[in-house]
Design a protein that fits this description.
By secondary structure, the chain is an alpha+beta fold. It contains eleven helices and twelve strands. Strands 4-3-2-6-5-1-11-12 form an eight-stranded mixed sheet. Strands 7-8-9-10 form a four-stranded antiparallel sheet. Bound molecules: aspartic acid (ASP). The site of aspartic acid (ASP) has 16 residues, from strand 8.
Length: about 375
């Protein structure tokens, strides 16, 4: 994917209506150069698109804009192609049901916010995903949940981090966005807020499944073993298997009124410690939505997504360079992040869809008003 940044390096030419660095605005350009650049763009764009098949189902620029569009993810990682058929089918079934909920709501004229909240609640309730019931466990065997939501109309946002008793964290995040003057509540304060807001709370044991208990036991074992080989580990996290590593859920949507929204919900990373919080509740890293550009939800190694302000950076590249959603997402996922860090889903204000990842797989799905309905794990 080296083609896209290379293309953008030529933005000083007026073809893009953009000036790089300290080049002067309205600088006259040379027609032959423009022709050369144009040919280069066509050649490199074709190469860029065909060399990465993780993006083949992206929906590129739409004109006129689509009536509605939605994309969902259930985490990115090293999903083995040898996973048991029943496991694969269970994921495909659940993703299909989740996508159907969102697609139908948008088709009926629901707001993008209502659609993403409904879909994420469904995924939080499904123990397959690392969010709500079935979330991964911390080093001490508890579930600690993070979530965020953003409204592309006015950049309003709400988030919660490290909650242990909120049944559907995404709904509390939305409540924070719509009814408080703040953006992010953490820990006990967030739970106190949930009581005031009338958002359902449950015992922590509600979130914990046998699978996740076993996963934690293996993670702790591996931790001891892994330390022998990985004293230099940057994160200190040693998830028990790459299959379990990422399972966060996220939804982005464009509704019939042209409004974008994004939401993300997670249990974080297995064996996390000391109140660790990842990117999922961080606006601009795990979640971002701006009607002028796009809505983004991230999944992967949260620390890297925070460092690179991934969700906002994609929006900013679109805003400041005129790049398409697909181009901007490809730059950030393939050039800024490292191989294996994770991926993003995005919907543009025109209904374009990007699902870009640098891991072998990402549980994902996309649907739109043109009849697209697709659910995938790998290519
Ligand atoms: N991004 C999440 C975190 O770091 C994990 C994930 O996406 O699965 O907490």
């Amino acid at each position: 994917m080296t083609g896209i940044p290379f293309i953008l390096r030529f933005r000083e030419f007026s073809f893009f209506g953009y000036l790089d660095g300290n080049a002067k605005r309205n600088q006259p350009t040379v027609p032959m150069r423009q022709l050369f650049v144009l040919i280069l763009i066509i050649v490199l764009s074709t190469a860029a698109i065909s060399c990465n098949d993780s993006e083949i189902q992206d929906v590129q620029n739409q004109f006129p804009p689509l009536e509605y569009a939605i994309a969902i993810h259930g985490g990115a990682g090293v999903m083995s192609r040898d996973m048991p058929a029943e496991t694969r089918e269970a994921y495909i079934r659940s993703l299909t049901e989740a996508l159907t909920i969102g697609r139908d709501l948008l088709a009926e004229g629901a707001s993008s916010l209502d659609a993403i909240e409904s879909v994420i609640r469904f995924m939080e309730d499904d123990p397959l995903f690392n969010a709500g019931h079935g979330a991964v466990l911390t080093n001490t065997g508890t579930a600690e949940l993070d979530a965020s939501v953003m409204d592309g109309r006015d950049l309003s946002a709400g988030a919660i981090a490290g909650v242990k008793t909120v049944k559907n964290p995404i709904s509390l995040a939305r409540h924070v966005m719509e009814n408080s003057r703040h953006v992010l509540f953490a820990g006990e304060g967030a739970e106190h807020y949930a009581d005031q807001a009338g958002v359902e709370r449950v015992e922590n044991s509600y979130f914990i499944t046998d699978n996740r208990r076993r996963q934690l036991e293996r993670a702790i074992e591996r931790d001891e073993v892994s330390l022998d080989h990985s004293g230099g580990s940057a994160t200190g996290y040693f998830p028990e298997s790459a299959n379990d590593r990422f399972g966060t859920v996220g939804v982005v949507a464009l509704d019939r009124d042209g409004n974008l929204a994004a939401g993300t919900s997670t249990g974080g990373m297995t064996n996390k410690r000391f109140g660790r919080v990842g990117d999922s509740p961080i606006i601009g890293a795990g979640t971002y939505a701006d009607n002028r550009t796009c809505a983004i939800s991230s999944t992967g190694t949260g620390e890297e997504f925070i460092r690179n302000a991934v969700a906002y950076q994609i929006s900013a590249i679109m805003e400041f360079t005129g790049a398409s959603l697909h181009e901007a997402a490809s730059i950030v996922v393939h050039e800024k992040l490292k191989e294996g860090d994770g991926g993003i889903i995005g919907v543009g204000s025109d209904g374009s869809i990007a699902m870009v990842f640098n891991t072998p797989g990402m549980y994902r799905g996309a649907a739109n008003s043109e009849g697209l309905f697709d659910v995938k794990i790998w290519d």
